[in-house]
Amino acid sequence: MTARAEIAAAQRVVVKVGSSSLTTLPGGLDETRLRALVDVLGALRAAGRQVVLVSSGAIAAGLAPLGLAGRPRDLATAQAAASVGQLRLVQTYADAFAAHDVTVGQVLLTADDLTRRSHYRNAQQTIERLLALGVLPIVNENDTVATEEIRFGDNDRLAALVAHVAMADALLLLSDVDGVYDGDPRTGPAALVDTVRSPADLAAVTLGSASRNGVGTGGMATKVEAAFIASAAGVPVVVTSTAQAADALAGERVGTLFAPTGRRPSARQFWLRYASRPRGRVLLDEGAVRAVRERHASLLAAGITGVTGEFLADDPVELVGPDGEVVARGLVAYDARELPALLGRKTGDLDPEYRREVVHRDEMVLVGRRTPG
């Protein structure tokens, strides 16, 4: 089965729609465009398929009621706009979906809800229960409380994480652009990229970083990043315009398809790689790097040369080689204050209570990137 056929057959779909598809600066929330999308998703539900909607638009929907001319630059005003706009956005969705006999539920998340493993599991259980009850979850970042330190930054990445949390069969990323182009179609000739099978396919493509109408925070670069996260986890992705949503969900050749490039990982592995927030770093010698990277061995105290940060046992940490490259990410078995006394020592020389692995191989994912500076 081709990846587009997989999308057409997908029983559980995550659909993300951006602010630029639902709102305009002069008038705020555009109910006509919102209802057009709801009609597509309502038909999907009528066909017996499950939908999780990740919707931007809360801040933009709050601009007009507050008399604001553009997206606020300061956090407090943005949170105020989100507080007003989120109510209007979800009520408009609820009314529109009611015409299709679909009940909606609101799920507001901050990055902190997914970077903490217990919260991640809670989000997973909530979404699963809503779907089991026949409810269509509407997910958005909780802009009323999210600070710069705990933001996703855009709902594209949130949608990729939700696709795994919800165990979705497909992900659709919608905006006001038809797909990924090999150039900027606004400034000259550019061709739509039909299929992406690896990052190398886009190596020569310059991606935009801002939305066109000034009400959103994402751009094509964030959509591509999100698409690679989902496709690496075995989920086929289509990036296209909201106007082409129905065709994309039917498996038609529209937008840009990101074909699955990996198997679906366990929830813990996915969380470690994409959603966890490292609390510190464990520095490895060359031998430990080879053991972790080539043999996928557990990390022992003998191969550790240093520790940075403050963390507790079971916190996520980065494992960093002598050259500054992050080799892996894993759940550490010791508090930061315990490790200095263990560094470089063979397991047999340690007291019995300290002979366990520092990071077990089952609690570790390989990463492979260089640290800043």
Automatic annotation (TrEMBL):
> What are the protein's UniProt keywords?
Amino-acid biosynthesis, ATP-binding, Cytoplasm, Kinase, Nucleotide-binding, Proline biosynthesis, Transferase
State the InterPro entries in the record: AceGlu_kinase-like_sf, Asp/Glu/Uridylate_kinase, G5K_ProB, Glu/AcGlu_kinase, Glu_5kinase, Glu_5kinase/COase_Synthase, Glutamate_5-kinase_CS, PUA
Q: Which residues form the PUA domain?
A: 280-359
Copy the pathway line from the protein's UniProt record.
Amino-acid biosynthesis; L-proline biosynthesis; L-glutamate 5-semialdehyde from L-glutamate: step 1/2
Coiled coil: which residue ranges?
Answer: none
Listed GO CC annotations: cytosol
Quick one: which residues bind ATP? K16, S175, D176, T217, G218, G219, M220, A221, T222, K223
The entry's localization annotation reads: Cytoplasm
Query: Taking the first listed entry, what is the main subcellular location of this protein, grouped into a coarse class?
Result: cytoplasm
EC supergroup of this enzyme? transferase
Q: Which family does it belong to?
A: Belongs to the glutamate 5-kinase family.
Under what name is this protein listed? Glutamate 5-kinase
- Its source organism is Modestobacter caceresii
Q: In the UniProt record, what gene is named as encoding this protein?
A: proB
